[in-house]
Amino acid sequence: MRNLATMARGMAVALLCLAPALAGNSLVGTWAAPINWGNQASGLFYTLQLTGDGHIREHVMNHMGMAYDLVGTYQLDTAGRTLRWTWRDYSPKRICVGGNCTPMGAPEKLKVLNTVRIQIQNANYFIGIATDGTTTNWTRTH
After folding, report:
1. Distance CA 59, CA 90 (A)
2. pLDDT 10s digit of each residue in the chain, 142 long?
3. 117 vs 129: CA distance, rounded Å
4. Which residues contact 135 (CB under 8 A, 6 or more apart)?
5. Half-sphere exposure at residue 85, Cβ-oriented, CA atoms within 13 angstroms
6. Secondary structure (H, E, C), the chain
7. Please, are residues 67 and 59 in contact by the beta-carbon 8 Å criterion?
8. What is the Cα–Cα distance from 45 to 94, expressed in whole angstroms?
9. Phi, psi of 70 (to 5 degrees)
10. Thinking of the domain 27-140, which architecture would CATH place it in?
11. Sign of the C-alpha dihedral, residues 34, 35, 36, 41?
């Protein structure tokens, strides 16, 4: 009985110490990442939303205002170093210009597990490192 009480107290202390660290590193919220936005016509502006219930949404827009959305689910590993997500759906399904509409395929592969390493710099800034080594700098907007 004494060992069980000691273990429970130790676990409670560990959780109390761990909770602020996890809260400070939370990726839940809305993030933005401009890619070549300021100096190139081909630039893209990404907005990423991560919810507390494991849903992810990415909005991608170009300089002409054309945009698409991807939605799916995500998981962040317990160490907060790896983000894994799967896109489940996208919109729009058609692109319409001047009354002419053409089908639009998925801008990313659906139902495929994606992985990126995360380097949290502070509560409002993190770096995502893709498997090919490219980096994306994300800034919290909400």
Report:
1. 10
2. 343 333 334 333 333 333 333 344 489 999 999 988 777 777 899 999 999 999 999 999 998 888 999 999 999 998 889 999 999 999 999 988 888 999 999 999 999 999 999 999 999 999 999 999 999 999 999 8
3. 5
4. 127, 128, 129
5. 26
6. CHHHHHHHHHHHHHHHHHHHHHHHCCCCEEEEEEECCCCCCCCEEEEEEECCCCEEEEEEEECCCCEEEEEEEEEECCCCCEEEEEEEEEECCEEEECCEEEECCCCCCCCCEEEEEEEEEECCEEEEEECCCCEEEEEECC
7. yes
8. 21
9. -120, 140
10. Beta Barrel (2.40)
11. negative
Q: 117 with 82: CB under 8 angstroms?
A: yes
Name the token pair of 111. 């139902």
Tokens of 6: 């000691």
Burial group, residue 113, by CB count within 10 angstroms (0-12, 13-18, 19+):
exposed
Full-model pTM:
0.77
